[in-house]
Amino acid sequence: MRRLSLNQKTTNSWSVAQAVDGCVRAGIESIGLWREPVHDAGVAKSAALVRDAGLRVSSLCRGGFITAIGGEERRRALDDNRRAIDEAAELGASCLVMVVGGLPEGDRDLPGARARVAGGIAELVPHALERGIQLALEPMHPLYCADRGVLSTLGQALDIAEQHPASAVGVVVDTFHVWWDPDVERQIARAAGRISSFQVCDWITPFPGDALLSRGMMGDGHIDFRRLRRLVEDAGYDGDIEVEIFNADVWAADPDGVVALMKQRYADHVL
Amino acid sequence: MRRLSLNQKTTNSWSVAQAVDGCVRAGIESIGLWREPVHDAGVAKSAALVRDAGLRVSSLCRGGFITAIGGEERRRALDDNRRAIDEAAELGASCLVMVVGGLPEGDRDLPGARARVAGGIAELVPHALERGIQLALEPMHPLYCADRGVLSTLGQALDIAEQHPASAVGVVVDTFHVWWDPDVERQIARAAGRISSFQVCDWITPFPGDALLSRGMMGDGHIDFRRLRRLVEDAGYDGDIEVEIFNADVWAADPDGVVALMKQRYADHVL
Questions:
Q1: Measured between CA atoms, how close is A212 to chain B, in angstroms?
Q2: CA A160 to CA A48: how far, in whole Å?
Q3: What are the domain boundaries of chain A?
Q4: Are A114 and B155 within 8 A, CB to CB?
Q5: pLDDT tens, A104-161?
Q6: Taking the alpha carbons of B112, B104, B210, B93 in that order, is the dihedral positive or negative?
Q7: C-alpha dihedral, B113 to B114 to B118 to B123, nearest 10°
Q8: Is some CB atom of chain B closer than 8 A to the CB atom of A222?
Q9: Quick one: average pLDDT of A28-52?
Q10: Which helix (H) or strand (E) holds B88?
């Protein structure tokens, strides 16, 4: 239970201060932060809140969105990622989660977008190394390939990560994104030493109407969490296990109740 | 244009007779049939309709759903697939498309379900060989892994197909299901001699509310059809190109208008 981390998205209505208090009330020792609420509270203030509460910051979500074809848009995206790296360092986060972005408007060249991701990561690595922040490449469910993340498999994320020191570039293993992958066993083993973050939430059916809010509480869906937890542990990962749930019903519920349910389901389905 | 085939699902409101007439009116030489409307018309009657109209039957959809854990349910599923093979033979179809099925109710053992698919296919191969019908394994978008098809990649479908003669087991390359796959180039090349069917429709965003009706007309979404067509042709495939669209708006439109639009978009985006 000590490795359980509350990703702030799971209690989406809470500010940083509220989420920190909620973790303390529930005896949760780690939190995954998001940049927007961190900006609302102020980065220095957010850092002080988690530090004073004695919480670990298991991740900062999120950098990325680096598939723009060039010029000003690409430069702005890379600059914003350098700021995100700085924020992650100031917050004492273990890593910066990278959601790399989808196809640019009107563009259908998927191999091209993927090549630009590899190039963009290479451009960010020096700054990440300087600040001691690991860029955590998040392969996303192929459902999001067009509009959120052109990295679709762990193998593909590792192909990029392995071009850089493990201290600079790792990967996120998120059960929702990787559970279906027939190659997941081999790729998690390959990720040994590069697993930046292990995130859990469930794949539920029928598929909710909003693709961005389609994640379920552990136990409500089809994922065998213990199998995946054992695979990441066999690969040497002993860091925090973050619960990140985008779901309209979960967001509408009382956040303290969500945290209590999350602890129960974590014990029942993940541990 | 001679390779264009109308999959009956694209004009979902049409009976077999109406779809055959619609193809003839539009100068389309090939049709992909579905079992339910074929049963409504009668198998022999449907066979006569397509034969008398001089149409090719590019596929029969669909067999599959063979992930049941055992006993009576599994036996019934295999028997139904043998009937589907018989129907495909009677219709003169090039192949029987296999949608293998999702996880059984309450079951989370994905590797187990996948192993049962391999076993079920092996059981069906003798009957397929006897009737001269190729089982066309359809890898499905990982979106459907839980509830429709646990075969999620072309590579995985080929791992099963390659255990059998190519005349008995091939694969479907459906752009909607495979376009995101970072390994698609290598796997289509590997599929040379085993491509049973090439199906096209688009991946559209925002993702429609109903996951089963989320396919778009070519050109309305993000898929580079020409790239995928060239890959299947480089692998030696010169068969029909079927347009299969599950979409509420397409289904609500006048079917003759849908067929006309399909021809136009096929010329503009696929050829």
A1: 9
A2: 34
A3: 4-270
A4: no
A5: 999 999 999 999 999 999 999 999 999 999 999 999 999 999 999 999 999 999 999 9
A6: positive
A7: 20
A8: yes
A9: 98
A10: helix B71-91
Overall fold of domain B4-270: TIM Barrel (3.20.20)
Residue B200 CB contacts under 8 Å (≥ 6 apart), including other chains? B174, B175, B176, B218, B225, B228, B229, B241, B242, B243, B244, B266, B270
Q: Which residues on chain B are in Cβ contact (under 8 Å) with A179?
A: 110, 145
What letter represents residue B42's amino acid?
A: G
Q: Give residue B250's Cα distance to chain centre.
A: 18
Distance of alpha carbon B138 from alpha carbon B149, whole angstroms:
8
Look up tokens 């999620």; give the residue: B152
Total residues belonging to chain B = 271
Q: Which residues of B touch A182 (CB under 8 A)?
A: 114, 152-153, 155-156
Interface touch A211/B210, C-beta < 8 Å: no
Could you give the ipTM of this predicted complex? 0.95
B205 contacts A147? CB cut-off 8 A: yes
Q: Is the Cβ pair B205, A141 closer than 8 Å?
A: no
Would you call A198 an interface residue with chain B, using a CB distance cutoff of 8 Å? no
3-state secondary structure A45-104: HHHHHHHHHCCEEEEEEEEECCCCCCHHHHHHHHHHHHHHHHHHHHHCECEEEEECECCC
